[in-house]
Amino acid sequence: MKKSFSTISSLVLGTALTTSVASGATGELAKIMKDRGLSEVDVIRAAKTYNPTGVKDKYVVFSSGGQSGQMIVYGVPSMRILKYIAVFTPEPWQGYGYDKDSIDVLRQGNIRGREINWGDTHHPALSETDGKYDGKWLAINDKANPRIAIIDLADFETKQIVVNPVFKSDHGGAFFTPNSEHILEAAQYAAPFDNNYHPIEEYKETYRGGVTVWKFDPKIGRVVPNDSYTIEMPPYMQDLSDSGKGLSNGWGFTNSFNSEMYTGGIEVGMPPNEAGMSRNDTDYLHVYNWEKLYKLSKDPKNVKIINDHKVIPMDVAVKNNALFLIPEPKSPHGVDVDPTGQYIVVCGKLDTHASVYDFKKIKKLIDNKEFVGKDPFGIPILDMKKSLHGQVELGLGPLHNQYSPVDGEIYTSLYVDSQVVKWNFKTLKVLDKENVHYNIGHLAGMEGKSADPQGEYIIALNKLAIDRFQNVGPLHPQNHQLIDISGKTMDLLVDMPLPLGEPHQAVAIRASKLHPHVRYEMGTNTKTGKQHIGKTLAGQERIERDGNHVKVYGTLVRSHINPERITVNKGDRVTMYLTNLERAEDETHGFTVDHYNLHGSLEPGETIELDFTADIEGVFPYYCTEFCSALHLEMMGYLMVKDPNKKYESAQKIKMKSMTPEELKAEYDKTVAVNNATDAVIQSVVKFLKDNKYQDHKVVANLVTDAFDQYNQIPAQKKKADEAVKAGEMEKAILFENMIWQLMVKTADVGIRAKDALVRIIATTQSTAAARGEKTFAEGGCNGCHVIGKVSSGPDLTGVLQRHENGVDWVSRFILDPQSMYTDPYVKGMIDYFNLKMPNQHMNKEEVKDIIEYLKWVDENANLF
Ligand code: RUQ
Ligand code: CUA
C-alpha cells in the first residue's frame, strides 16, 4: 500500500511526462491501471484533481444555475459540488420560499403584482475592491424576468432581489464596477420602457434598449434602487457588457446585435429574425461614462421618470459626451476588459475574429471629438479601425474571454469549433488550442476577469454532454470541463456533469478569500442580519393567543422542540417563531408541520417564522427534518387543530397496566446509578482538559464551550427530577433523569472530541516514519481491535514495547508472522481472554518499522491517552 502511494507521488512530482511511468508503476497501482484501462496520463490527471478526504479545494466556483434560478457552488480542482444557493426559485432544503422571511425576499421579485417563482440566471459577479475580488457579495441576473439578486457570502444566502423597472428582459449583467459602487445590467430584447402596448410597427420610435446602473452599497451589501438610473439606448439588442477598470475606470462597454432594428414576422411572410438581425457586417459596441451619468442623474432636469425610476434620455447622454458607439464585427457576444483596463476584447460569434480595442485610442478620439458620423438616434460613432489595437483570427464562433497573470495572455471559447484557444491580445498571436466537448459557451478562469487573475485552471462550460456520461434520458446534463493551463500547452483534466439547468457563466475565487460564519448570533433573522422579533431563549418558550391569532415562541435544541403540543382552533392564524438554540457548528435543525406546505432550515442561532392559517382540522405531527442526533426521530410534537363548532366525544378510557411502586423505584435507582457513572467519565475528561490548559487552544476551547452548553443544562433537570421524587411522582422523576443522561451523552460526545484535539496539539511531534506508521496502523486495520489508551476487542497497545523483552523485535515478529507465536504463553493467555487471534495483516518490513515508530510515539505520550 505504501509502495503505491510513493509511486503516485513520484508521478506527480516530476519526470512524469517525459519518462515512461507505466513501467515505473508497480504493484497495486499497476494492477488498478490495467483493470480500469487507465494510461499514465490518466493517472497524472487524476492525481491533479484528487482531494483525499478532508483536503479542501484551492478555489471556489460560483456557477449560474441557468433555468433552475439557483446558483451552484463547487470546488476546484476537485470539481466537487458544495452547495446550491436558492436565488429566484423556492428551494426546500434551505427553507427558501417556505418560511416567512425568505418568502419576503422571494416576493421582492414580484413583477407588476405577479409572483415569479423561477429565473433564468446567466451571469454571476463577485464584488470587487480595486478591481480585485473581495469575497463579500455575489450578484446574478435573471434574463427572463429582468431582475438581479444579491447574495451575502457571509452565509451564502440571497438577501435581496430587485426588479428592473423599465426593461422587459436583460442579459448583460450583473457586472460590478471596480469598487462595487455600482452594478451594470444591460437589456436584451428591446421593448417599450413603459408598461403599455405599442405596435411593433413603431419599434424604432417606442421600443428601447439600455443599461441600468444600479447603485450598490458595499458596506451593507444592498442595491439602492432610488439612487439608481438607466441609460436609454437605441433598440439594438444590447448584450454582454463589462465595466471598465484601471485606465478605463468610470466607463462601461456593452455589445449589441440587431443594429438593423429588424422585427421579423414569419407569419406575415417576412424572413425570420435570424436572417434580418444579422444582415449588417457590423453592430455597435456601446461606450458610456457611467460615473459622469450617475452625477447627472441626481439633477431632475436630466432624467425622465418612468415607472418611478430615473431614465437618462439618449440626447442628454450625448449632449454630455457620455455615450458613444463603435462598430464591431456582426452579432458579437462577449466583451471583456483586460486586467489593466486598457484593452477591451470583443468576440465575433458570427465572425471568426476577436477584436482588441484600445481604450487609450478610444479616449483620444472622444477627447478630440473625432467622429465618423452619427447613428439614427444622434449618437456619435467612432472610427472602428482607429479604435482597434488589432484583430486576430481565432476560429469559428468565438464567444467569451478570460485572462491569466501572464502579460497579454487570454483564453477564448470557440462555440462552433468546440475549442478553447489561448492567444496573446497584445502580440495578436495564437498560442495553443484545446478541444472540449461540445459547444463551449462561457469559460471560467480563476479570478480570470478581475484585476488579479490567478491562472492555473480554466473551466469550459459546455452546452452539450452527449456521449460523455451515462444516458439519463433525452434531457442531458451540462458538462463543465477542468483544464490545466499551468503548462505551455493546455491539458484537459476532468469532466463534471451539472444537472441543474444551463449554467451560462461561472466565477471563481481563491477559497482563502471567503470567510463565512459557522453560526449566527443567537436569534438572528438571517435575511435582514438583525435580531429577529421572534427570538426566543431557553425558558422563554410560550404560546400566546390574541383573538384568533396564535403566536408560538418555540426553540429547537438536540433533541427536542419546545413546545411539543400546540392546540388551535380551525381557522386560527398561527405564527410560529422558532429559534435554534445550538452553539455547536453544523447543528442545523429543520422544521415542518405535516400537510401545511411549510419548511424551515434553522442554522445554529437562527430564528425563523412560519406563518399560516390552520384551515384544516386534524392532528398534524411536526418534526425536525435534519438527522441531528441519535434522538432525532424523537424531536417532534403535535399540532392539533379542532373545529370550535364541533362536539368531540371523549374516547373510552382503556385501563392500562402500570408498574408497581417498587418497580418504579428500582428503575429510578438504576437510572441515577448510570448517570453517576457517566458523570465520573465526564469529570475525568474535564480534569484532563483543565490539567492540560485547554483554554490556550482556540479550537479546543470552542468545543469545550459547546460541551458545557449541554452540561450546564443538567442542574435544572436535576432540580425537576428531585422535586418529582419529593412529590412521589416517580414516573416523571425517571423521565427527568433520562433527560440528564441525554445531556451527558451530548456533553461526552463533544468533550471527547475536545480531548482528542487537545492530545494532538500537546503531544510530541511525530517523526515522518511515526506519522506513516499511524496511517498504516489505521489503514491496515489494526485499529479495528486495538484502541490506543483503551482495552477494546484487543489489548491496549500503550506500553507494548516495554511489556516484552526485546520489545521491538517481539512486536515486529508478532505483526509479520502471528501464527508462529500463538503458542507463546503470553499470547495464548490473550487469545483466551479476548477470544480472538491476532490475524496476519500481510504487512511488509517497512510498514512494520513505521508502526513501531508510531508505537514509540504513543509511549512518549502515554500520559495523554
Ligand atoms: S451567455 S454562452 Cu453569457 Cu447568457 Cu454567452
Ligand atoms: Cu433536530 Cu433532528
Automatic annotation (TrEMBL):
A Pfam family annotated for this UniProt entry: Cytochrom_C
Signal peptide region: 1-24
CDD domains named in the record: N2OR_C (cd04223)
GO molecular function, one term: electron transfer activity
Keyword Lipid metabolism: no
Subcellular location: Cell envelope
Domain of life: Bacteria
Coiled coil: none
Limits of the Cytochrome c domain: 768-859
UniProt-recorded name of the protein: Cytochrome C
Annotated GO CC locations: cell envelope
InterPro entries: Cupredoxin (IPR008972), Cyt_c-like_dom (IPR009056), Cyt_c-like_dom_sf (IPR036909), N2O_reductase_N (IPR011045), N2OR_C (IPR034205), Nitrous_oxide_Rdtase_Sec-dep (IPR026468), Nos_propeller (IPR041114), NosZ/Cyto_c_oxidase_sub2 (IPR051403)
PANTHER family given in the database record: CYTOCHROME C OXIDASE SUBUNIT II, NITROUS-OXIDE REDUCTASE
Assigned keywords, A-Z: Copper, Heme, Iron, Metal-binding, Signal
